[in-house]
Hints:
This protein is an alpha/beta fold. It has helices at about 35-50, 70-80, 95-100, 145-155, 165-170, 185-195, 225; strands at about 1-5, 10-20, 20-30, 60-65, 90-95, 110-120, 120-130, 135-140, 160, 180. It is globular.
Amino acid sequence: MLTMGIDTALSHCSVAIMFDEQVLAENSVLLTRGHAEQIGPMVREICALADVSVLDFDRIGVVVGPGSFAGVRVGLAFARGLQIDGGPQIVGVSSLQGLALGVHDDGEDKNILALIDARQGYFYAAVFDRDAKVIAPPFIGNRNLIEETVFAAAKGRKVLLCGPAAGDFIQIGNLAGSASENTHIDAKEIANFCACYSGAKQNVSPLYLRPPDAAPKKTGRYSAVYDK
């Protein structure tokens, strides 16, 4: 099966192409903004390296958030654009599960807590088993809520934290866990996940978990719409 993984939800713009378990091409660039300008040329470049066409893919895995509102929309819109005229199946992956997928199993029975900074003392979080299967689905919460969720799910297992906010959370929290070195999403893991996906066909949509920080200005002739 020929698959592509796309991540534009966080601080990287990443794409990978896999055929079954073989990586054909990949690229990842650290970005604070500009994902929309980067994703198209990046996909064309790695398709050329892998000697495939965008019409050849069986499935495309895309990270649907939470994360940057603009970044989430960029990746999802790009994946949907490749699906025109009966193209590949789109498989959505949360950014938190994408992080958990990159944690390598050392054989120890433990849970994985994936964390992304949601600002103002809040975090996007989710709990997974060591195979990155969901135990507690993505949610937004403060330190206390996250710790309560982890303790309820732990059932005696150790906890490994991953994601860009893992180190910060350990410093302020009371979890007796350790932090993984995995702080960003690997597009290869997304491509591999969608190849192995056996669930129902998805109606893929963004996973935001909170409203955007920026709101339209309540001025001009449209102000009445926003005041209602």
